[in-house]
C-alpha cells in the first residue's frame, strides 16, 4: 500500500492530485464538486483504496492548486486525462460529483476508450441555466467568494445534517471561501456552456447515476434525465441526502461505488466487495432520447471562435441567436421572442443576423470592449431600456461595477449630464439586482 501527493511542475495542463491504494490495482479517479477539494472524498477512500488505486484531484485554484482557470468542462476533462497520463493510468473508472460529474461525462463522450465505468453523483445533462451561472460569476467578481461561501450549507446539506454537524458545515464554508475567485468564475462559465442533452446516447460505458433525494441544486429530475438518455444507465436515490451526498451520506455512497465499479472489473480481478444492488427506475417518458435538442457543438464552436457566416443567412442567424443568448441571457431573449409577432418578426430576424451574427461575432475587439462601446452609445441615444439589458450583459462580459461607473462618468463629459444621470439610475438598479446573491 502506498500514497503519493504531487503537483506537476512540467505541464500546466495537469491537475494537483493524490493517489492512495495498491500500486498495481485498477485505477479509480474521484472528481470533486465546484468549490470542494479532494478532501470531500475522505470518507470513501479507506474502503475504496483497499481494492483500487484511488486518484483524487483538485480543480484549478481549489485547495491551494495553481490558479490556472479552465475555459470549459472540456478543458477540465483534457487536464484530467493529462493528469491520468502523468500518474500512469491508461484506463480507469471514474466517479464525479456535480462539476466532477460533468467532467466524467465529457471524458465518456470525448475519450471513451479511457473509461472502464462511470458514476455520476449529483449531476445533470445541463446544470440549471446559463443565466444562473453567469449571474453567480457576476456576484463573485463584485463581492468575492464570501457571499457564495456563506450560502454553501443551504445548497450542499439538508437542514438536519447542517444542524447536527456544525464542524463539517464550517469546513465547507472555509473550503469555498479559500478558492481562487478567478478560477471559480471560470468554472461558473464552464458550467454555463455545458449541455450534453443531445449527446447522452453516445455514452457507452456502464454508468451509475446517484442523486440525493433532497438535492435542490441537481434534483432527482436531473438524474432521471441522465438515465433516460444514457443507454442502460442505472439510478440510485439516496434518502436524506442533499447535493454533497459523499459527505452527508458517506456509507451509502461508498457501497454504491464499490458495487458498481466491482461489477465492471474483468472477471479475474473481481476481488472487491460484492456488487450492491442499485434500485432501477424506469426513465420518465421512456423515449431513450435526451430532451430539448439544441444547436450542434460545431455551431457553438463557430460562435466562440467568432467565425463569420457571410453568404449563409441561416448560419448567421444561428450564430447570432446563440451569441445574443450568451451576452444578454436566456431570460431576455425568451421575453423578446414571446413579444415578437408577425409585424416585428422580420426586424428581430434582421437584428439577430446583422447585429449579433455579424457585428458582435467579429473578432477584432473582445466582448468587454464591445460592452463599453454599447453602453456609451445607448447612453448617448437615451435608450434606457436597452441600456438596462446591456448593463446586465456588460457585467456578464467581465466588466466590474467600478468599470461601468467609469464608462458612464466618461460618457457624461461627451454625451451630456442629463443623459448620464438617467444612465446612472438604470445602471445602479441593474447592478444591485445582478450582484445580489440569489437562493
Count of helices?
Answer: 19
Share of helix, binned: 40-55%
Q: Which H/E pattern describes the elements?
A: EEEHEHEHEHHHHHEHEHHHHHHHHHH
Shape, per Cα inertia axes = elongated
In spatial order, strands of the major sheet run: 1-2-4-3-5-6-7-8
Major β-sheet profile: 8 strands, mixed
- What ranges have pLDDT less than 50 throughout 5 or more consecutive residues? 1-12, 272-311
The helix/strand class is: alpha/beta
What's this entry about, in short?
The chain is α/β, with parallel strands linked by helices and 439 residues long. It has helices at residues 45-48, 73-86, 99-110, 130-143, 146-156, 159-164, 166-177, 181-192, 220-229, 245-248, 250-263, 297-305, 313-328, 330-339, 345-359, 367-381, 384-396, 401-415, 417-434; strands at residues 2-6, 17-21, 27-31, 53-57, 92-97, 115-121, 207-212, 234-238.
Polypeptide structure, described:
The chain is α/β, with parallel strands linked by helices and 439 residues long. It has 19 helices and eight strands. An eight-stranded mixed sheet has the order 1-2-4-3-5-6-7-8, with helices on both faces. The protein is elongated and about 70 Å long. The protein starts with a strand and ends in a 5-residue tail after the last helix.
